[in-house]
Structures are given as C-alpha cells and as structure tokens.
Amino acid sequence: MGETKDGSGRRIGRRSLIVGGAAAVLGTGAVLARDELSRLWYRVPGVDKPRVKGAVDYRGARWVAASPANFRWADRPDDYPIEMVVVHVTQGSFDSAVKVFQDPEHGAASHYVVGQDGRVAQMIRELDVAYHAGNRDFNERSIGIEHAGFVDRPQDFTDAMYAASARLTAGICRRYDIPVDREHIIGHVEVPGTDHTDPGPHWDWERYLGLVRRARTAARA
C-alpha cells in the first residue's frame, strides 16, 4: 500500500485508515466506536510483527526489557507513522532509569536510555508505543530517548553521551525518513500538555543536530 496523507500533509498509518473508516460506517456513536477500536486494534490477530526475543533495533544497544505495563504493543510504522524523536533527561542515573522502567507501577518508559559513558539500553521495540511523552498522539508517532543525568548539571551531558545518542538518533531518522531538524527532533518540554522541562537549558541542540547529521551522512557513505 502506498503512503497516504491527510489534508495537512501528515502521513496516515494503515491502522488510522481502517479505524477511521470503521467508525464512519457506524454512524451514531462513531466517536465512541472510534476510541474503542483504537484501544482494541493492536490486539487483532496478525497485527503484531514477528518478534525475536532480545532483538534490538539499534545494533549498538543492549536489550533490557521494560515492563509491558509501561508501553503498548503495536505494529509501527504500519499502524502509526514514526515521525519524531523526543529527547528526555532522566533526572537520575542510568541504572535508576532502567529500574524504574521495569517497574509496572511506574506507568511510563522510553524506548532507549543513554548513559554518560555512551552505553545504550533498548527497553521497548521501536514498533511499539512507549508511554514517554505524556501525550497519546506524540507517543504514537515518536521514539523516546532518555539521557542519564540532571537538567541543571551541564557536566552530565558528556561527549560520549552526545556521540552515542547522535548515532542512535541518526539510525532512527534513516529508518523512518525523519528530517534532522528541530521540528522532528524535539525535547520533552516541547510536547503539548507536558509539565516537564527536560532536556533543559544546558542541552546543546546545535551541537547535537550537527552530530546527528554527520552520523547519518557517515552511515550512508
């Protein structure tokens, strides 16, 4: 199936078309039906892509599974287009972020965690919807990357962290044809409705985007 876009030019996933069409057919109560179908669609047999236990989407990552309570099984980009990367800061250590994302009571997790030493853990497959942005629409259309440290400590954003995160983001942008710019690579603070401030004023966006562009160019070469 070719790519479909709405009136604003935004890509529309296969799930959105089918759910929207089904709700329209129902007529009365279509809005409620649409919401219910949205919740149930990912459970339909055959939607999930084949999964290999412990497989990672980024070969530089180590697999550490998040609690299933902190994400939703999906089939991206077929049911939701992946259009953004959201940059987070953990407000804690690498190990504490991994631990809390494994806690089913936490209710949130990102796809990746990047440490100050450059190590990368993948905790949720990119095809699944992580609860990381505090906004359902943004969750469904983005990949979340946590960075170990504190927003008010510029020294936490090390050279190794920037380099590792840039390689990770470059790969994501290449896989899903995401432009490397500030419209598509954003901070958690920029997500509508959020009360978070990360990655904070010390995150060097100019440096980071430059590293992402160089990493993407190097990968093509």
Automatic annotation (TrEMBL):
Keywords: Cell wall biogenesis/degradation, Hydrolase. It is an enzyme of class 3 (hydrolase). One of its GO terms (biological process) is peptidoglycan turnover. Residues 69-200 form the N-acetylmuramoyl-L-alanine amidase domain. Transmembrane segments: none annotated. GO terms for molecular function: N-acetylmuramoyl-L-alanine amidase activity. InterPro entries: Amidase/PGRP_sf (IPR036505), Amidase_domain (IPR002502), NAMLAA_amidase_2 (IPR051206). CDD domains: PGRP (cd06583). This is N-acetylmuramoyl-L-alanine amidase. It comes from Streptomyces glaucescens.
